[in-house]
Write a structure and sequence with these properties.
The complex is a heterodimer. Chain A is an alpha+beta fold. Chain A has 2 domains: 2-91; 109-334, 2-Layer Sandwich (BirA Bifunctional Protein, domain 2), CATH 3.30.930. Helices cover 43% and strands 19% of the residues of chain A. In chain A, helix 1 (2-18) packs antiparallel against helix 2. The longest helix of chain A has 41 residues, at 51-91. In chain B, strands 27, 30, 31, 32, 33, 34, 35 and 36 form an 8-stranded mixed beta sheet that branches. In chain B, strands 3, 4, 5, 6, 9 and 10 form a 6-stranded antiparallel beta sheet that branches. Classes of the chains: A alpha+beta, B alpha+beta. Chains A and B meet through helix 5, strand 1, strand 4, strand 5 and helix 8 of A and strand 2, helix 7, helix 10, helix 12 and helix 13 of B. The structure holds zinc ion. Zinc ion (ZN) is lined by residues 261, 263-264, 268-269, 271-272, 276 of chain A. Residues 261, 263-264, 268-269, 271-272, 276 of chain A line the site of zinc ion.
Chain lengths: 337, 802
């Protein structure tokens, strides 16, 4: 009896090991556990045994049955899992293929820099305003303390549309237009296109400026330094800045602002002509004459104003060395931003 | 302005290193753009003596010379005819480099060793070619570098002078400024008239007929003149400052111009008729030949310097050809005058002439500097042995300028403006250093009188700026504006532009920015009719070129140029571009308006760069879909399309008008192929142009939320067979008009024609959504609505169920 049990066990184990697929396992299951299996025959034969032995052998045969059942089920489960794994592996996509998408475009670098600067100033309570690009001589020059025959007109190579109308040479006329419309205090920022008849490697006849104006009761030159220091540090990080005297008819005192050269860290290079400094904007306290021309009481208000070239900032930010690239609109350039 | 340090040192004893001076100048408003060392070009050239000169054995025109350098004797072969033993000469040793690239080295010339070169004045850039070597003064020491022996060394600063500081366009002006910066005394240059000459009284009479344009005219007389070259030092100084040497008399006027900033003019006195100078306005249509031999027709009001008979000079701009100094000139009339800036600027601009003189008069010279500059020139004539001058000058100054009014400056205002805390004494010290007179009144006010040459100092803030400058901007503290906290949104237009840009970029469009001016051909290429404002663009009076001569009335031309550029240079096969910019319209009465447009373009084969999507040619539905997505993304409601655009550049069958609200907002469609062809595009180009201000007007950042039904919706597909002639818009219009509130949504999800569809018909399928706000719909209810809908479509459109 126990020999027969051992023999069944051994034979089943061997077949389980040889089973190649689930079908084989089902056949093994019916062969060893089915109605015509040796184990069934063995159990049937137990009824002829004496009671005591029948009980013992019966227990052994049952144990064998349970054990065979377990082994076959485990083998089946293993086989099923292996099949799933195989199936998944067979159907698995090459997920290193690029994703499914249509091409996306890019924004112009001038737009990006303008948006960055606008966000810096709107966060400080400046409103964005707009003005015409074809401007009256009055707003572009006269109201800004640049009368006809003023030598400062030499600084502006102006495109004219008629005697009195021109393409604005700077965004400063928006200062006057805004002050004529709004009462102080005010804080405005005006980004936009400006035009000068000048075209070479460092000049395009159209470029972008951002004009800022703040009018209040007690705005000092020290405040101007503070405000522009915030701007420059937000744009370029914690770099050295210097303010040096300059001349604009519409501000006084006037200053030009240099930053430590971002290319050579102030050591001197071609970009900064060996000086270690790069000029990036012009600024000053609003000239009382301008307040008067705009209809404000020059004794009651003070103000600061600044203007910067967007392309200049973009060139420094992105390391662009030819301003003409901005207007060639070559996708090999544009796609980088 | 070019500033010679050696020249400067005649006015102030400054021993600061040049880099320090350059820095201080830059930080006080005089940006030093360039520092040039004069002298290194004469490196390896020394003073030497010819000991012996013999004929070259194998060449007639050459000599072989023994030349002593002070420490050794070298053999030099020379071709100049004027070499003689005993002469001191300039010897270029091996290593010496000349303009043009010649570098001296030991070599054999016709078999004879030559260990250097004897130099001519021209080779040394010290004079004109005269066929011989330069013979040096016998007193020079052998072996000394030529640059030192002839005192050629100098440093020249290129200083940028702002338009308000014309007073600094001279050595004297810069010396005054530097004296203030370094707190140094200013040395007065010698300008006394020599004794012994004639007096002007009987020699020159001046008659100013237009005192407004010429408030002061001074003249001096010089006789026994010998016109010839100026001494080397003067030629070098002029040349280092960018002025070509002409002859001693002209050079003296230029020298004083550079030194004093006062333009002078020298006339040949013999040619001045009637010993008389008349300053008058040009006659109507008067013609005049300037000394550069150009003949001009003078503008009205041009200021002329005349003698008793005729015009002799274009005042303050250029002298006349007939009265200029020549080799034969024996007597000279020197002019030093003050012409008002406006008069000179107007004439100069009208004639298109800009000279050293006119630029200075335009910006304003010192009316009190007119006399000393004239005396300086006269004393130089004597100093250079060029002739003898009058013992006095003729000064015609009918209405002397009144003393300037003091400017009252408040110490408190000054400190508040700058953010400083300076006391009255410190402020006064700064101003006195700038030659201003300062009178404190004891109650915090200073009365400031600027010197006559400081035209730019008129108002208190002008004085405040001077204090800031001398104090140094870097010593003004950094503070932050103390203003009430207030937020600020981007203005709506910026907000919409920002969102539109991002939506378009994400739809595959790249942003471009083009010049606002363009070629008129580009506009006519878009076929605008003559009664369309866009066909009559604003023209620039002074364009840089014809291709940039009119202001854009449409952005599309620029986009097409961008497409062409990228097709040609970049060989791209697809291109989607957009731009947000102003266009400029001019109505028939000439009034100009600006309008902001958003324009875009799609061209080429899409999805060529991906394995995952089928590639296909862009068509009008790409542009339409992108506008639908853009307007939806911008939350613009309502918008719709109408078939057929009137734009002359679009194909009528393949174009749409775009409406937002009731307003025509723009057009989109396929460009006419004959326009497209001109830009190298091989296939159709699809474009759109939208009125940006309407997008802003209809954009809503927030729209109120509508509650939605939570009862289940029932979906039914409706496939219809309709006549070709019926458009999808006709069917959707019928669906919209269908009078049943259970039909909530319809999406056109399939469209098909050809194949199994009978000729003349097309198949169109909608996914319908039926829903109620009050209850779950039963099949019967939905069927009833669906049938009713089908009936009405049958009746209205002759649609059949497919
Ligand atoms: Zn650098």
């Amino acid at each position: 009896m126990s020999d027969e049990c051992a023999s069944i066990r051994a034979s089943c184990n061997q077949e389980l090991q040889q089973a190649a697929n689930e079908n084989d396992l089902y056949q093994i299951k019916s062969k060893y556990l089915g109605r015509s299996s040796r184990l069934t025959a063995l159990i049937k034969s137990l009824k002829d045994l004496p009671a005591e032995e029948r009980a013992r052998s019966g227990a052994a045969a049952n144990a064998l049955k349970i054990s065979l059942q377990q082994d076959i089920d485990i083998a089946l489960e293993n086989m099923r899992q292996a099949r799933t794994v195989r199936a998944i592996a067979e159907q698995a996509p090459d997920i290193t293929l690029p994703g499914r998408r249509t091409a996306i475009g890019t924004l112009h670098p001038v737009t990006r820099i303008t948006a960055k600067i606008a966000s810096i100033f709107t966060s400080m309570g400046f409103s964005i305003v707009d003005g015409p690009e074809i401007e009256l001589d009055f707003f572009n020059f006269e109201a800004l303390n640049i009368p006809k025959d003023h030598p400062a007109r030499d600084m502006h190579d102006t495109f004219y549309v008629s005697d009195a109308q021109l393409l604005r040479t700077h965004t400063s006329p928006v200062q006057i237009r805004t002050m004529q419309k709004m009462q102080p205090p005010l804080r405005i920022l005006c980004p936009g296109k400006v035009y000068r008849c000048d075209s070479d490697i460092s000049h395009t006849p159209m470029f972008h400026q951002i004009e800022g104006l703040m009018v209040d009761t007690h705005v000092s030159f020290a405040d101007l330094k503070g405000l522009l220091t915030i701007l420059i540090h937000r744009l370029f990080g914690d770099i050295s800045i210097r303010f040096r005297p300059s001349y604009f008819p519409f501000t006084e005192p006037s200053a030009e602002v240099d930053i430590q050269c971002v290319m050579c860290r102030g050591m001197g290079c071609r970009v900064c002509s060996g000086t270690g400094w790069l000029e990036i904007l012009g600024c000053g306290l609003v000239n009382p004459v301008v307040f008067k021309n705009a209809g404000y009481d020059p004794d009651a208000v003070t103000g600061l104003a600044f203007g910067l070239g967007v392309e200049r900032i973009a060139m420094l930010t992105y390391g662009i060395n030819d301003i003409r690239l901005f207007y060639e609109n070559d996708l090999r350039f544009l796609s980088q931003f | 302005m070019l500033l010679s340090i050696r020249w400067l040192q005649e006015f102030i004893d400054i021993d600061a290193p040049v880099h320090d001076l350059a820095h201080r100048l830059t930080m006080s408003g005089f940006e030093v753009e360039c520092v040039t060392e004069i002298g290194p070009q004469w490196d390896h050239i020394i003073v030497a003596e010819v000991l012996e000169s013999t004929r070259h054995p194998d060449a007639d025109k050459l000599t072989v010379n023994a030349v002593h350098t002070g420490s050794q004797t070298l053999q030099i072969v020379c071709g100049a005819p004027n070499v003689r033993a005993g002469q001191k000469v300039a010897l270029a040793l091996p290593g010496a480099a000349f303009p043009g690239g010649l570098v001296i080295k030991r070599s054999k010339i016709r078999g004879q060793l030559s260990e250097g070169m004897l130099c001519s004045a021209a080779e040394l850039s010290l004079g004109d070619p005269d066929g011989g070597i330069l013979i040096l003064d016998d007193s020079l020491t052998l072996g000394v570098p030529l640059a030192d022996a002839l005192q050629l060394r100098d440093t020249v600063l290129d200083v940028s002078i702002t338009p308000n500081r014309a007073d600094c366009l001279s050595v004297l002006g810069m010396a005054r400024e530097i004296a203030a910066l370094y707190d140094l005394p200013l040395k007065a240059p010698a300008c006394e008239l020599p004794a012994g000459g004639p007096t002007c009284a009987n020699l020159i009479a001046v008659d100013i007929q237009v005192p407004d344009a010429c408030p002061r005219y001074c003249a001096a007389y010089a006789c026994n003149i010998t016109v010839g070259p100026s001494p080397l030092w003067m030629r070098r100084r002029l040349e280092n400052c960018g002025i070509r040497s002409i002859n001693n008399i002209v050079d003296i006027t230029n020298y004083v111009l550079l030194e004093w900033g006062q333009p002078l003019h020298a006339f040949d006195y013999n040619l001045i008729d009637g010993k008389q100078i008349v300053v008058r306005a040009a006659h109507h249509g008067e013609r005049f030949t300037t000394l550069d031999t150009k003949e001009h027709t003078l503008p009205a009001g041009a200021l002329m310097i005349c003698d008793a008979c005729q015009s002799r000079a274009l005042a303050g701009i250029m002298g006349g050809l007939d009265s200029s100094i020549t080799a034969g000139t024996r007597t000279v009339l020197l002019e030093s005058a003050y012409f008002t800036p406006g008069s000179i600027a107007a004439t100069g601009r009208s004639l298109g002439i800009k000279t050293e003189a006119s630029q200075r008069f335009e910006k304003g010279v010192d009316i009190n500097g007119v006399v000393p500059a004239l005396k300086r020139a006269a004393s130089l004539i004597v100093e250079l042995n060029a002739g003898q001058t009058s013992v006095d000058i003729c000064d015609c100054y009918p209405a002397p300028q009144s003393a300037p009014r003091p400017i009252d400056v408040s110490v408190d205002t000054l400190n508040m403006t700058l953010g400083l805390r300076l006391d009255a004494e410190t402020i006064s010290t700064y101003l006195v250093r700038l030659q201003m007179r300062v009178v404190p009144n004891g109650s915090g006010m200073l009365a400031v009188i600027p010197p006559s040459y400081r035209y730019d100092i008129v108002t208190p803030v002008d004085v405040i700026e001077e204090v800031a400058r001398l104090n140094g901007y870097d010593r003004i503290p950094v503070t932050y504006p103390n203003v009430p906290l207030c937020g600020s949104d981007l203005n709506p237009a910026c907000e919409v532009a920002e969102q539109a840009r991002r939506l378009l970029a994400f739809s595959g469009f790249s942003e471009v920015i083009n010049y606002s001016f363009q070629d008129p051909d580009l506009l006519s290429g878009l076929r605008f009719s003559t009664d369309d404002e866009r066909g009559n663009p604003v023209r620039l009076l002074n364009p840089l070129s014809a291709s940039q001569s009119v202001m854009r009335t449409s952005i599309l031309g620029s986009l097409l140029q961008n497409l062409q550029h990228n097709l040609r240079s970049n060989r791209c096969t697809a291109c989607s571009l957009f731009e947000i910019s102003n266009i400029f319209l001019q109505n028939s009465s000439g009034a100009i308006t600006e309008k902001r447009l958003l324009a875009g373009l799609i061209y080429g084969t899409l999805n060529t760069d991906t394995w995952a999507l089928p590639s296909r040619n862009a068509d009008i539905f790409d542009i339409k879909g992108c506008i639908e997505a853009l307007l939806t993304g911008l939350r613009i409601q309502p918008f719709c399309f109408e078939s057929g655009s009137l734009e002359p550049f679009l194909m009528p069958q393949s174009s749409l008008r775009i409406y937002v609200g009731d307003c025509l907002c723009g057009n989109c469609g396929t460009l006419h192929p004959d326009i497209t062809e001109r830009f190298d595009a091989a296939g159709p180009v699809h474009v759109f142009e939208l009125d940006f201000s309407l997008l802003c007007a209809y954009h809503k950042e927030y729209r109120p939320h509508t509650p939605f039904s939570r009862f289940p919706a029932v979906q039914r597909d409706l496939a219809l067979l309709i006549d070709q002639s019926i458009s999808a818009a006709d069917v959707t219009a019928s669906l919209a008009a269908f009078n049943c509130n259970l039909l909530r949504q319809w999406n056109l999800f399939d469209f098909y024609q050809g194949g199994s569809i009978p000729p003349g018909k097309k198949s169109i399928a909608f996914r319908l959504l039926f829903q109620s706000d009050e209850r779950t719909l039963t099949d019967a209810e939905v069927n009833k609505a669906h049938d009713k809908l089908l009936d009405s479509l049958r009746q209205q459109l002759g649609a059949e169920l497919r």
